[in-house]
């Protein structure tokens, strides 16, 4: 009888009583991912599902920008995050004032902001993107120059796949920036059979040697569809643990790095969140209106 079972039972009971839905990112720990989440996915899937969810309350198991995105798309629902301090190094790398300065400096150049940003930043941008649609979003303007901020590595990885000139910012994901090509080549040298699957927040030198690069759900689908005998997931630690059971026969090698922000969300905090209805996400209405437009343009983009 695992130690987390009473929490799982209590959360699932309370969830029904309160008519709440739990949205969990692919980086949540397996107990959350498998036992209490109603919807799991990457950032784009969670944003899309947030528009469809039939519940009065959304408990966002992920980081703050994800909960804020759910609130933007569901202004009349209560959106809770079990730990308000669950941040993101990318979201913290840029402010709305920075984006206004960029607009002054590059008049007429469309501004695409990664969804890993605050509502203030989204409100100053033309459209959002995630790692799974960034190339399509950048190309949707039909112009030759686009600002793609704040993730420098994602922008460079997008630039490698399009003719559009990409201007960027110096933000990095503190988890993915730590992977190096040398480290991965050493794994490949030790075992040439291994497949390397990387997230596009990794440096371009890492993505270049990967067999596949894509969003967290893209990586999951690749492993489930291709069933490589040995795979190295170049991303946050929980991903491999979450999908191991649905990919029998695949051996996972885990050179993982932990996201300390994602790991702030735990079963006891989810239970507290539902019991005490905390911490509630609020966004200033005028910021929310403009930020929502940027997110909705992305969600509605035909791909
Ligand atoms: P995905 O959109 O691929 O899920 O990525 C979100 C994230 O925070 C990765 O670090
Ligand atoms: Fe942010 Fe990186 Fe953590 Fe994703 S993994 S939430 S980009 S710090």
What key phrases describe this protein's structure?
alpha/beta, four-stranded parallel sheet, metal-binding, Rossmann fold, binds 1,3-dihydroxyacetonephosphate, binds iron/sulfur cluster, 303 residues, iron, 3 domains
Q: What do you see in this structure?
A:
This protein has helices spanning 5-18, 30-35, 43-52, 64-73, 96-105, 119-123, 134-139, 152-159, 181-190, 204-209, 216-226, 238-243, 267-276, 285-300; strands spanning 20-25, 39-41, 57-61, 78-80, 111-114, 127-129, 145-149, 165-167, 195-198, 212-213, 230-234, 251-253. It is α/β, with parallel strands linked by helices. Helix 10 (204-209) links the parallel strand 9 and strand 10 (212-213). The model has no long low-confidence stretch (mean pLDDT 96). The strands form three sheets. It has a four-stranded parallel beta sheet, sandwiched between helices. The protein has a four-stranded parallel beta sheet with strand order 6-5-7-8. A four-stranded parallel beta sheet has the order 10-9-11-12. It contains 14 helices and twelve strands. The N and C termini lie far apart (45 Å). 42% of the residues lie in helices and 15% in strands. The chain has three domains: 5-87 and 263-282, NadA-like (Rossmann fold), CATH 3.40.50.10800; 91-173, 3-Layer(aba) Sandwich (Rossmann fold), CATH 3.40.50.10800; 176-258, NadA-like (Rossmann fold, 3-Layer(aba) Sandwich), CATH 3.40.50. The relative contact order is 0.17. Iron/sulfur cluster (SF4) is lined by residues 63, 88-90, 116, 173-175, 201, 236, 259, 261-262. It comes from Ahrensia marina. One of its GO terms (biological process) is 'de novo' NAD+ biosynthetic process from L-aspartate. It catalyses: iminosuccinate + dihydroxyacetone phosphate = quinolinate + phosphate + 2 H2O + H(+). Iminosuccinate binds at residues 25, 43, 114-116, 131, 199-201, 216. Pathway: Cofactor biosynthesis; NAD(+) biosynthesis; quinolinate from iminoaspartate: step 1/1.
